[in-house]
Amino acid sequence: MAESRRRIRSFEWSTAIIASISIAAGIAVYLRDGADKVVAILSKDLELLVGMLPKMAAGCLIAAFVTRLLPREVVARVVGSESGLLGILVAMMMGAVLPGGPLTIYPVAAAFLVLGADVGTAVAFITAWNLLGYNRALIWELPFFGPEFVGWRVLIALPLPIVGGLLARMVARLVVKRGGGDQWT
């Protein structure tokens, strides 16, 4: 059985918008501060890019391994569109315990989408990583704010990944009903 391939768009509006804003900002800096400032900014941006490239490569490599190691059927069953609230809870727990920065978490979330997870579980995963991540709480929050603050913050944030995941599922299903794409629903 052949898998249906996603059609690759030849033009991405989001890239064009970001490029336009970047060029406009570069022109504004050039007019206000001169060419030396533009070159200094671009060199700092290049340093940042060179520093991030290994992390981005590692994140993409992890995501590629995830797609090869996890069976598609298991992922679709556990965190797919028919997994219900349990799938969102599983994704929330995965997001809360998975360490790493955004350069590793977002590729892993994309890999789960490729493997059959739905958009609701991906939103719950990323929201839980942002709000409930244990490594950030242990390393940064507990030493600075203490256990009472961290406990209250986690307790208050606990339902948000569930709400976000359920809302994302609802919106995705509405989009499909209105004739939109059904890639991750």
Please name the defining characteristics of this protein.
81% helix; mainly alpha; 185 residues; 2 domains
Structure description:
The protein is an all-alpha fold and 185 residues long. The protein has two domains: 12-53; 70-177, no CATH class. 81% of the residues lie in helices and 0% in strands. It contains eight helices and no strands. The protein has helices at residues 13-33, 35-69, 72-79, 84-97, 102-115, 119-132, 134-157, 159-177. Helix 4 packs across helix 8 (159-177) and helix 6 runs antiparallel to helix 8. It is globular and about 55 Å long.
**Approximate strand percentage:** under 5%
Helix count, DSSP H or I runs of 4 or more residues: 8
Rg from Cα: 20 Å
Q: Outline, from the CA principal axes?
A: globular
Contiguous low-pLDDT stretches (5 residues minimum) are none
Order of helices and strands: HHHHHHHH
Q: Summarize the amount of helix as a percent range.
A: over 70%
Broad structural category: mainly alpha
Main beta-sheet annotation: none
Mean pLDDT: 89
Count of extended strands: 0
Question: How many domains is the backbone divided into?
Answer: 2
